[in-house]
Amino acid sequence: MSERVGYHVSYDDAGAVVIDDASSGVDLEPVTSDAPQDGTGCHSGTTMAQAARDAGQSEMMDQFAKDYPTGPHDKPQSMCPAFGSLRVGLRMKRVATILSGSACCVFGLTFVSHFYGARRSVGYVPFNSETLVTGKLFEDIREAVHDVADPEKLDAIVVTNLCVPTASGVPLRLLPDEIDGVRVVGIDVPGFGVPTHAEAKDVLAGAMLNYARREIEAGPVAMPASGTSDRPTVSLLGEMFPADPMMIGAMLAPLGLAAGPVVPCREWRELYAALDCSAVAAIHPFYTASVREFQAAGRPVIGSAPVGHDGTAAWLANIGDAFNIGKDRIAAAQNAFLPAIRGALAATPINGTITLSGYEGSELLVARLLIESGADVPYVGTACAKSSWSADDAAWLEAKGVKVKFRASLEDDCAAMEAIRPDLAIGTTPVVQKGKELGIPSLYFTNLISARPLMGPAGAGSLQEVVNAAIGNKDRMGRMRAFFEGVGAGDTAGVWERSPNLQPSFRAQNLKKLERQAKAAKASQMI
């Protein structure tokens, strides 16, 4: 087995301290303001991006363009990207979050974070035109960070600039690195630079790994409460169903390896253990900034995941090669799990045509599982960009005749569904809505597919029941569509006692207004 490359992580004597879940953060009173807020944001596209460059943010924008290359659309088509980084911070113990952005953005982000189970408050530093222009906003942010920093309650504070402060060049890099032992991590997550909320998770995870790596280089760090493994570890990159890391650990055991922490981590000290690995498994392939930190620490990165029969066989072989493990031992590990996976796939086959799309980053993995379960999957769309860590999955799918679309737009996904007319459409909320309007059974990827185990034998049998049940609803969907036929759509949706009072002139007038604004924006860029 190969020796670990890169530097060694030294732990101090404070490793036995157990972090209490109750110490997850501090109560932050939101500050309200009647001051007018800037209404521009992520959907201002190139205007805001150019403003950020003019404010001295060119290096950051160039890095975003390199890490998260855009596709046919240059603005988010899912929820605000900052939700991804916000969620990562809110799920960590002893980490507080402070947002700086337009009031409407902060309200929406805090609302959706609580909808998804956040149990702590979010700090908010408001601004108006005067504080933005004069630099007072940065002073307000610095004051808020000093007010919140309490080493008894916190390990770190995450400060996030949303679109307008980022475009205005509010310099979070000038915040202190730490206050009384509380780390300060400042990030910019603008919608005009980060295309999806999945990739925004990488923005914060990468920033935290960078901070932790610099701490390791400076000297001994605190050992995680769980201690360290007596076997070489493989850190896991990407949020997964809770059972998946345990299943991966079971598959690694016959190779003499152990599963390390999952990044994004749940507490600060896990970052040290993640960097203390011998290799990294890029289960989700879009964590570009995080991969950069692991590579800077000298850790090799393996793509794809142990999904299905073929995926598990290839992944275990790649892991074994990375550790210079003998072929016989790799074959023994494969033989310990592949028969069970094959049996689970064959137990309840899927018979039907499925189109699949989403923005979580695991779409290609799910497609592999569906195909090995017997489904015909002619189209897979993912909002994430193509990367070397998803290359094996894409090649496997394309060899099966699948059209794989990276950085797919909503229009791409809907067009594929309408052209194929599958037995089941799996996708984002608007794709599901469109599918049901057409009478096609549809499932929301994030809540009904992504929130299930995918790895090993457990993953092999996890999708068939829900997918087969949904496909079986096709006749029911047809009856519902027939029942609601004729009630109108769009402006005329619903039941009307009289003909709806349409105003096509209003729409034409608004369209001309939008065209004038677009021409003015284009002219200003040419100056």
Automatic annotation (TrEMBL):
InterPro entries: BchY, LIPOR_BchN/ChlN, Nase/OxRdtase_comp1, Protochlorophyllide_Rdtase. Its EC number is 1.3.7.15. It comes from the Bacteria. It is an enzyme of class 1 (oxidoreductase). The chain crosses the membrane at residues 95-116. Pathway: Porphyrin-containing compound metabolism; bacteriochlorophyll biosynthesis. GO terms for biological process: bacteriochlorophyll biosynthetic process; photosynthesis. The keyword Oxidoreductase applies. Residues 80-468 form the Nitrogenase/oxidoreductase component domain. Keywords: Bacteriochlorophyll biosynthesis, Chlorophyll biosynthesis, Membrane, Oxidoreductase, Photosynthesis, Transmembrane, Transmembrane helix. This is Chlorophyllide a reductase subunit Y. It comes from Sulfitobacter noctilucicola. The lineage of its organism: Bacteria, Pseudomonadati, Pseudomonadota, Alphaproteobacteria, Rhodobacterales.
